[in-house]
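Recall from the previous lesson that a structure prediction takes nothing but the amino acid sequence as input. Here we apply that procedure to histidine kinase from Luteibacter jiangsuensis. The sequence below is the only information supplied.
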Amino acid sequence: MTVSPRSPGRPVSLRRQLILKGLLPTTVAALAMAGTLGVLHIRAADAEVHAKARIQAARIAAAMADATNDDAVSDALSRALLRTAPTQQAILHRDLAGDIAVDSGRRLAPDSQIHTWTSTDDGELETVSDASALRERQLAGFVMTLLLCGGIVWLFAIARRGLEQDIVAPMENVRARIDRFLHPRGAQVPADDDVLSAIDALIDELVDLRTRHDAAMADALRQRLQDIARHTRFIEQVGDHFRQPLQALALFVAGMQPGDDLRQRAVLGQMRSSLTRLNELLDGLLEMARFDAGAVEPAPVDVIASDLYVRGRAAIEADAARLGVDVRWRGGRLPLHVDPVLFGELLHKLVSSAVLSTPHGRVLVAVRRRGGAIRLEVRDNGMGLDPGAQARVFEDFTRLPGHPGYGLALAVARRIVDTMSGRIGVRSSPGRGTLFWAEFDGAAVLPAASHPAELHWHPAW
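The prediction returns the following tokens.
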């Protein structure tokens, strides 16, 4: 954790860290470069003016090289001053004679003069040049440096505001959200604490929470698996304990010979019917218990709908022939990715319920594709269901009108669909038939463009 030099022991805020470690060094470096450029510009201007003054002094010295007397020297200096406008005065200092001074007549301020000394054969030549242009260039360089530094400071302020809006504020919001999530009722981290350290501490707390959550989930999963195993053993034991007496009773009843006594024949028929219904009830209860205990795991494979139709047709053929129901099957060539056992059991329960509800009627079974999903539809033209019955049709022990069973088939069908992570529903109108449907996402195999045309239901069905 970074400590502020102004207040020892106090954490430095993220805003100050970004300024001290990010913006401030860059800004100081930019200001130093701007100052260096300004100094270099002023020095370059001064060197240029002094170099020009020396060149002019050399030209003036060369102009008086051929002069043989004082008048010729004065005349040569005067002509040279006319050709070198910035030079205002030339003075030839001689050791054995007096100085010769030539002036252009223009007076210069003391701070606008540049004195240059040049050695000649006749003595030291002093030239006085106008330095006002140098002062202007120095002032321009100074102003340029100030403007450049001001621009850098302005950019620093903009960048600081941008950092606060784009980095500091979002990170503080993240810190606050994590803190509220972890401590909904506890004390939160003060706003002036180090945001990075606070987020790091909160992340450590989240990791610890995730570790404890994973451990709890693993324990819950282990407990759930133990419960499933225990329920599975219980179901198997219950099935064995109930099924053995029922099978023995069925064998005993099958061996009974009532003779010609009509009353005994009727009693024997009722006993056989009761045994059959008891076996059906036991099978339904055990099947529901298996699904409720989570002992059934789907194992999807690629199958063709017609293969499942063959098994379903064989299972309901006898009931359909006895009740005079015409069952039609559509979409048999559609490939599916489902658990064939569970899907076949679902198909059997829906179709058998439709057949029992439609004596001397028709039932249409179809599998269609909807994008990547598969939809199973079973429609009959039977008596239909009222809205109250539709709301309870998938509940336990809810019997459909005209059904001889205990109302467990559709309850088991709902559990099958839930196990396969699908959806199931019903649409019906009294006197116009019933449509049971089940839809499974991701159960389609072929691309959407290759499936057969969808079936269109007609009111006649």
